[in-house]
């Protein structure tokens, strides 16, 4: 998807627009500073999601839309 600006607190939705949670923590490349992973605090699940920028369909500073649906992430949680 190219360079995406991901900020803690951004709302995360699946490709159908269902709210999954919000960005909690960012993992960065130590050399470039680019985000390589991010943790989403999930409202409906007991565990958080660990995702990469490649999982993003589109993003703004306040909202991230993922490529998959919430059903597809239920095995990842």
Provide a descriptive summary of the structure in words.
The protein is mainly beta and 77 residues long. It has a single domain (11-67), classed as SH3 type barrels (Roll). It is 5% helix and 42% strand. The chain is built from one helix and six strands, in the order ββββββα. The protein has one helix spanning 70-73; strands spanning 11-13, 19-28, 35-42, 49-51, 56-59, 63-66. The protein has a six-stranded mixed sheet, with no helix packed on it. A hairpin with a 5-residue loop joins strand 1 and strand 2 (19-28). The chain is globular. The model has no long low-confidence stretch (mean pLDDT 84).
Secondary structure elements and pairings:
Layout: E1 11-13, E2 19-28, E3 35-42, E4 49-51, E5 56-59, E6 63-66, H1 70-73
Parallel strand pairs: 1-6
Antiparallel strand pairs: 1-2, 2-3, 3-4, 5-6
Short description:
The chain is built from one helix and six strands; from the N terminus they run E-E-E-E-E-E-H.
Keywords:
single chain, about 80 residues, mainly beta, SH3 type barrels, 6-stranded mixed beta sheet, 1 helix, globular
Counting helices, strands and paired strands, the structural category is mainly beta
**Poorly predicted regions:** none
At the fourth level of CATH, the homologous superfamily is: PRC-barrel domain
Order of helices and strands: EEEEEEH
Spatial sequence of strands, sheet with the most strands: 4-3-2-1-6-5
The largest sheet is: 6 strands, mixed
Beta content comes to 35-45%
Radius of gyration: 11 Å
Distance between the termini: 23 Å
- The CATH class designation is Mainly Beta
Number of strands: 6
Fraction of residues in H or I helices: under 10%
CATH architecture: Roll
Q: Please state the average pLDDT score.
A: 84
Overall outline: globular
